[in-house]
Design a protein that fits this description.
heterodimer, A: mainly alpha, flat, B: alpha+beta, six-stranded antiparallel β-sheet
Chain lengths: ~110, ~220
């Protein structure tokens, strides 16, 4: 369920699209975690909603600022429907290079958000 | 709930968030996240990365009837919100596992694999295999290495190996580099959820002969 204090609209849209993709393309069940013991709140705290929106903008800016090679790999990992090993096969890059580029990208994002 | 000390890797959470992880491994991720607030928060971050990437995508033109189709779909939705998905606190199996078993521990269809160890393979569609294992306290699993990835999450009891102590909620991420001998801690039976994408490699001769029969 959409909770404005826990996820941005684009994240919510992303998770719906992902689940549809798994149903349609992969024809697999997607095991889903249990719900949180608390929430969603009937009336989310507006301060939380605002803070989340600011963080989402910051994250988008941080992704846009990633070095090209790292950003492309992150995009493929999310939208290519490929495992990291399959990306290695496709790009001809060693799996270790892919893993370390993704790791570097995540470190940059963490640094930007920290 | 005790403290969880062994968590999922970034690579697993990211693949699960992206929807590229096979079903068996996804089941372990969903089960761990059900018990671990820290990994739930990390997972939400990886989903937020997906959301930010959606924002970057180029726009695509909608078909002419998209709005009508959407309204028609909304009309078919049930009015009540989905009930909260949460296991009864006394249950051993978190809900993602119960979805496969059809209930809690008493519904598991155990099969003996010798030495008091029992297993129940859960039916999934991916290339990976996922099973519940029940190991009597004090018993060692055969010493084994891995050709691929193995995730082992404790649901009840505990085990120890070269990497430390694993209690309820802890998950061990093992790959080719780890050769380990998990031993169930003396006391109650240790019940684990284990997913692998390649057959395990046993050191001793006897388990290797038994392997095709056990399906491990």
């Amino acid at each position: 369920m959409f909770d404005t204090s826990r996820a941005s609209v684009s994240t919510w849209v992303f998770t719906i699209a992902r689940n549809r993709k798994i149903d349609a393309l992969r024809r697999m069940k997607r095991p889903e975690p249990e719900d949180l013991a608390w929430g969603p709140e009937a009336e989310p705290d507006q301060a939380d909603v605002l803070a989340l929106r600011q963080e989402s903008d910051k994250l988008a800016a941080a992704i846009a600022e990633l070095p090209e090679k790292q950003r492309v790999l992150i995009q493929r990992a999310y939208f290519g429907d490929l495992s990291h090993a399959q990306i290695a096969d496709e790009t001809g890059l060693p799996l270790g290079t892919i893993k370390s580029r993704i790791r570097l990208a995540l470190e940059r994002l963490r640094h930007a958000m920290g | 709930m005790g403290t969880i000390n062994h968590h999922l890797s970034d690579a697993l959470l990211m693949s699960y968030a992206a929807g590229t992880l096979d079903e068996g491994f996804s089941l372990v991720v969903a089960t761990h996240v059900s018990l671990c607030d820290e990994c739930r928060a990390r997972l939400e971050s990886f989903e937020a990365v997906g959301g930010a990437l959606v924002e970057e995508c180029d726009a695509v033109a909608l078909s002419d009837d998209a709005l009508d189709v959407t309204f028609a779909m909304i009309d078919t939705l049930p009015l009540d919100p989905a009930p909260v998905r949460r296991a009864v606190p006394s249950n051993v199996l978190p809900l993602p596992v119960q979805d496969y078993v059809g209930g809690d521990l008493d519904r598991v269809n155990w099969r003996s694999v010798g030495g008091g160890v029992m297993q129940a393979v859960l039916k999934t569609k991916g290339k990976d295999k996922v099973r519940l294992l029940s190991i009597p306290g004090g018993t060692a699993m055969p010493d084994h290495g891995h050709r691929g990835l193995e995730l082992t999450m404790v649901l009840k009891g505990a085990f120890e190996d070269e990497d430390g102590y694993f209690g309820r909620g802890d998950v061990e991420v093992a790959n080719e580099d780890l050769h380990h001998t998990p031993v169930a801690v003396v006391g109650e039976d240790c019940i684990c959820l284990a997913a692998t994408d390649a057959p395990l490699r046993f050191k001793g001769l006897v388990p290797r002969i038994a392997q095709p029969f056990l399906g491990i």
